[in-house]
Write a structure and sequence with these properties.
It is a single chain. The protein has helices spanning 2-17, 24-40, 42-49, 55-69, 73-84, 91-105, 121-135, 166-182, and strands at residues 108-115, 138-145, 152-157, 160-165. The chain is an alpha+beta fold. It has two domains: 2-104, Peroxidase, domain 1; 107-182. It has a four-stranded mixed sheet. α1 (2-17) crosses α6 and α2 packs antiparallel against α6. The N and C termini lie far apart (45 Å).
Length: 183
């Protein structure tokens, strides 16, 4: 998809433009802040998409938003470039890919945990420590609660899923019983 190619290209360019790894996190937060401002204000989103709006007017709004949010200089330059090239509609994908770039450069990995009940801080810390040991990276965990899982947890690491939920075990048992009935 064009959206992914453009998003990845700009994210990689921004990452390559920031040599100091300590500034990556600040740039990511700035990029997320700008994206959130555009997403939460529907008129702003429409403003950037509207073809009859003058480029200079859009540029002025970009600079104003960057100033109000205290956006990092490199990100501000990227926003101006996106506006000049009429690529503002790819901002969401750029954020997504830049976050992956930052995680890669800072040796981090994001893990999404879904459980039937909220995890305690102690459980989350144990899970982080275990995954850190296995994967050799700093683990960032975000959690979700889905009561339909009945019990257990499901981990999503990148495009891999580890499903150790009671709901999944029951599905496996059901398929096994159905296969035995057929035989």
């Amino acid at each position: 998809m064009l959206e992914n190619q453009v998003g990845k290209r700009y994210a990689e360019a921004l990452s390559a433009n920031i040599s100091d790894a300590s500034l990556l996190e600040k740039a990511l937060e700035s990029l997320k802040s700008f994206n959130e401002a555009v997403k939460t204000e529907p008129q702003l989103d429409q403003f950037f998409k509207h073809p009859s709006m003058a480029l200079e007017k859009k540029k002025s709004v970009v600079k104003d938003i960057c100033g109000r949010l205290g956006v990092d200089e490199k990100v501000s330059n990227l926003m101006t470039l996106l506006n000049d090239r009429d690529r503002m509609l790819y901002l969401g994908k750029i954020v997504e890919y830049f976050e992956q770039e930052v995680d890669s450069r800072l040796n981090r990995m994001r893990v999404h945990v879904t459980s039937a009940h909220p995890l305690t801080v102690a459980n989350t810390d144990r899970l982080k420590a275990a995954l850190n040991k296995i994967l050799g990276k700093t683990i960032l965990i975000d959690t979700d609660v889905d009561e339909s899982l009945i019990g257990g947890i499901m981990l999503r690491i990148g495009d891999q899923v580890a499903d150790d939920t009671i709901r999944n075990r029951l599905e496996i048992l059901k398929r096994t019983i159905e296969n035995e009935e057929v035989a």
